[in-house]
Amino acid sequence: MALEEMAVHFSKFNMIGGLCWKHLNVIDPVLHMYDSAVRNAHKIHNQEVHLGKEVTIIGVACFGKEELYSVLVAPTCKTEDAADMEVILAHAIECWDATGADTRVGPVWSFTTDGDTTCHAAGHRLFLKHPLSINSPLYAILSDMPWLNTFTGDSKVTLDFNFKHIFKHK
Ligand SMILES: [Zn+2]
Q1: 56: Cβ–Cβ under 8 A, 6 or more apart, which residues?
Q2: 110 and 39 in one domain?
Q3: What's the CA-to-centroid distance between 107 and ligand 1, angstroms?
Q4: How far is the CA of 52 from the centre of ligand 1 (A)?
Q5: 23 plus 49 within the same structural domain
Q6: CA–centroid distance for 99 within its chain
Q7: Same domain, 72 and 91
Q8: Is 65 found in the same domain as 99?
Q9: pLDDT per position as a tens digit, 18-68
Q10: Distance (Å, rounded) from C-alpha 164 to C-alpha 149?
Q11: Centre of ligand 1 from the C-alpha of residue 95, in Å
């Protein structure tokens, strides 16, 4: 999703926002002193950290419900590669489990991406890792289906692609 490229000040936290998540580690976004603001402005000017052009969004939908709940909205400079995306997707799932959402709401069992090739590559790395076990109750049903990819990620999370984006490529 496109984003207006600008730095913003979150007065409640006295922090800078609107900068790319990949390079945010090169600055301290908290404005401790005047020098903090000047230092951060120089790093933005020198392209060490960038104003976000778009946002990376991860939303959660519960099976059978219409609502989509955002769990991550982070500005991006679009320089991240599949390895960076793999880290952020895996971290999102770790946080889901660490906060207890897996028991209160439900475990993550499927992950869908849009048409972004970086997300596709990260999805393949994370969610096409393990072949369906011969001990799985589904094995007898699914193993006879030719061309069906039965690989999953950790905890048997399956990979999917948003159907609107699949149709767009056809
Ligand atoms: Zn950046």
Answers
A1: 21, 72, 73, 74, 75, 76, 80, 85, 88
A2: no
A3: 32
A4: 7
A5: yes
A6: 17
A7: no
A8: no
A9: 999 999 999 999 999 999 999 999 999 999 999 999 999 999 999 888 899
A10: 20
A11: 23
* Tokens of residue 54, six digits: 């778009």
85 and 150: one domain? Answer: yes
**How many angstroms is it from 91 CA to the middle of ligand 1?**
19
What angle (nearest 5°) sits at the alpha carbon of residue 88, between those of residues 82 and 94? 135
Residue 48 is encoded by which pair of tokens? 């060490």
Distance 120 CA to ligand 1 centre (A): 20
Residue scoring higher pLDDT (2 or 148): 148
- pLDDT tens-digit readout, 29-40: 999 999 999 999
Total count of domains within the chain: 2
CA of residue 41 to ligand 1 center, whole Å: 14
119: domain range? Answer: 80-169
Distance (angstroms) between ligand 1 centre and the Cα of 20 equals: 5
